């Protein structure tokens, strides 16, 4: 059978439409746009899904308050709390506005966290990279980790007074251990085969640490950072309620004295939002730093 016969059979059978372009059947713009619209709607839906349950809780909270099940003296309604936020932002409480107190608390938490994270990295690297470093550093770190760090408040006050130092030191002390433990575990958990391959390539010790050990430990380090930030905010809540002159904790203590539960709730919500914000920032950095993991 000749090649001309082969090309003529589909046309004769009605398989090939002579009106169609050679590049294939014409594309329908509605059919092409539909998947794109559905994908966009799907992304929006996935972004909104995490907010459904908190919104439902707020609606239930407001409904119980409106029906009188929750008394304002016990727990203020969301509408009342929203008005309190407006008053705290515009007028403040006892001489300080909400944004001023938030800035002071954020400075304390981030400074203490930075000190704790720096100490954790300095201690974790020798403890994870060498057996001698582990023998010298790890036992005292494990013993200190078992101390209830919030119980050190009286001792820190005796050592440092009632200023900013004991609050920052307490936050730093609590932030050290999650990052230290995760970073040491990440360094020791690097795949031995990869390390042996780096050795066979005649990489120096520093090059092995730079290109093999540290990237391999980075997932554990990012997890430790998130945990340390959580501990930092939890520690700050307690530290700021002890002889503080400014900050969210001071605002909460003043509100407790005057039975202003709406202000207390606002302070707790601010702590929560600050914690979520810093955690989101760490997750953003994690996605960029660990892009290779995908």
Automatic annotation (TrEMBL):
Location of this chain's protein in the cell: Cell membrane
Highest taxon above the source species: Bacteria
Membrane topology: Multi-pass membrane protein
GO terms under biological process: alkanesulfonate transmembrane transport
Pfam families, per database record: BPD_transp_1 (PF00528)
Segments passing through the bilayer: 110-137, 144-162, 168-190, 258-278
CDD domains, alphabetized: TM_PBP2
Domain ABC transmembrane type-1, first and last residues per copy: 98-282
Alphabetical list of SUPFAM superfamilies matching this protein: MetI-like
Keyword Transferase among record annotations: no
GO cellular component, one term: plasma membrane
Keywords: Cell membrane, Membrane, Transmembrane, Transmembrane helix, Transport
Region (Disordered): 1-28
Family stated for the protein in its record: Belongs to the binding-protein-dependent transport system permease family.
Name of this chain's protein: ABC transporter permease
